[in-house]
Amino acid sequence: SDWSADSWSDYGSRDKPGTTLGRTVPDGNVLFPDIFHTDNLLFYERFRAYQDYILADCKASEVKRFIAEYLEKVLEPAGWQAIWRTDVFEVLVGVVGVDFLALKAVVQLSEPFLCESQDSSFTLECMQELLELKEHQILLQELWVVYDESGEFDQTALAIEHVRFFYRRIWRTWDEEEEDEFDYFVRCVEPRLRLHYDILEHRVPSGLVADYQNLLSQCEELYEKFLNVRNSISSNDSDSEAENVSMVEGLKLYDKVEHLKQKLKLIENPLLRYVFGYQKYGSLQAKGPRPTGTKVIHVVPWTMTANLLQMLARDKLCPESCEDLEIQFHRDPLGAVNACYEGDRVLICPGHYFVDGVFSIADSVELEGYGLPDDVVIEKQGKGDNFFDCTGANIKISNLKLVQHDAVEGILNVHHGKTTLENCVLQCETTGITVRTSAELLMKNSDLYGAKGAGVEIYPGSACTLLHNGIHHCKEGILVKNFLDEDYEAPKITMVNNMIHNNEGYGVVLVRPVMLSEKKDASAQETKGTFLFLEETPKTANYDFLMMWLLCMTVGDILFPALGNTQPTQAGDETACAEGSRQEQPGCVTDELELYKRAETSEQTENNSEIANVLGATSAKKSQILKKRLSELGFTEADDNLMSQEMFVSVEGNQFKWNGKGSFGVFFF
């Protein structure tokens, strides 16, 4: 380590005299002195310390040495007090020396003797015996430095905090055995540090956090067993049957540990953690029919009046017959949904309801607001995960306004089954609605806005029907996920008479990979000077240009990205009239408004056709890929069911206005 003295001397301190760190009063009944408050450091403070001052570009096997060299530069070797904390006691000690290589401090009990424990067995004599057994050396990470106003021990307190945080939150017992050819900070420290702060700031779903902690505990337990088996084998040179059994057991444990380590890495990676995390929703279990066989109407009143009860009875509770009708009243919508069985119905009376929790709906139930959506508002309170998770076979949500704040995930996720959303308003925070593989969404007469991601995300193998909706003021309007992978089926998409406007990016986006054949074709065309690179289709693109573009997409040429705003040029007399109007020719001025309307209608029609054609062409490409793979496997006549997986697309009557990048685009990766 070749740092100069000046490169680290100012870290954690200021030029002005006195400490810059806060102080905190220790908990408990014993009057311990105040300690430095160092556990509230920001992400960038820890990131900078580990990257620039402590670990730099060290390998996993060099971590302990690098930490020791760092401590030698910043830690006061003696003359300071600290509270020694364990799970069973706390005691005030004085530091008289430091063993940097062992990351331990040499301590002695302070006077007066101050100790707090869960029982009274830790007397002065007992603590002295314990220290003698430990040769008066204890781990630095078990020390909390006593507060000092002079600022002399600021770097000491910060250094011990960094060591403590590292071994509690970052370091894994198996890290030292990982391959040493990678930068340890980049490979392990940074992703784990980011995950820690993502969890602190509620950016990771609570279920995924629990999964991560469980996986980490399992991995540590199995790794300890693996080490015990490995040590028993290495200490025994005999070639007995018991030795062979131990080797087989060790290999099995090793495989399990590696499998768990890979799962942990998936969650630590911010781009991949949700691929793993969403699997937990498959375990939501439906209750099924109520044991008594009856179906219940659950009523949620904000305030119940005689007049409201009378109207409910007339309109919703007993429009035909009240015989054998069971009604239950609840104080909040979440409690009503949690009490539902298969076939139940929830009626929510007008009011503004604040909910701190997730609506996990695994049965076929119906949620209905009694009134207009603006009259029946359910607002997510506090930071948290999803708002609505739907896995039931047939769920219907109607006449509600859903408001989301401080979210981690989207406002509504359809994981399995069919969910119908009718006459609702959705005020989003992150993603809007997500339609997962094998799930179905029917959304009609609804309004969705405010998503920082896509308003609607459509996954491969799903079915999504959007009728008469407004989707606006989102990052993207509708995002169709890649479905070219051989494991995915094409989604079924119906979009009719939707108004998609004022989105930051495109109205509709298709995400798809650049195929290997396309890369080769693109490389060849680039060599010939014919590679086509488009940021946006020219606004004067005509029908022939669009057909040429679709043909390119079908045969595998690449355009980056795809179409933006398209506005076809009018032909014949209309063009002459439009040009003449600019020259103030008589007879054309009166028809200018009509021509504008006709041009706008033509543009919207072309936008709908464009989306349907490109999605259909991509689906056809998937069929070609599948047919080719079947042919390579020796199936000359493909099964009709396998070859009938082309996307069903119906895109009609939709309007696209004022979207930042245009009506439709293709994102290649």
UniProtKB/TrEMBL annotation:
Residues 45-273 form the SHC SH2 domain. GO terms for biological process: fibroblast growth factor receptor signaling pathway. InterPro entries: Beta_helix, PbH1, Pectin_lyas_fold, Pectin_lyase_fold/virulence, SHCBP-like_N, SHCBP1-like. GO terms for cellular component: midbody; spindle. It is found in: Cytoplasm, Cytoskeleton, Spindle; Midbody. Keywords: Acetylation, Cytoplasm, Cytoskeleton, Phosphoprotein, Repeat. Interacts directly with isoform p52shc of SHC1 via its SH2 domain. Interacts with TRIM71; leading to enhanced SHCBP1 protein stability. Interacts with both members of the centralspindlin complex, KIF23 and RACGAP1. This is SHC SH2 domain-binding protein 1.
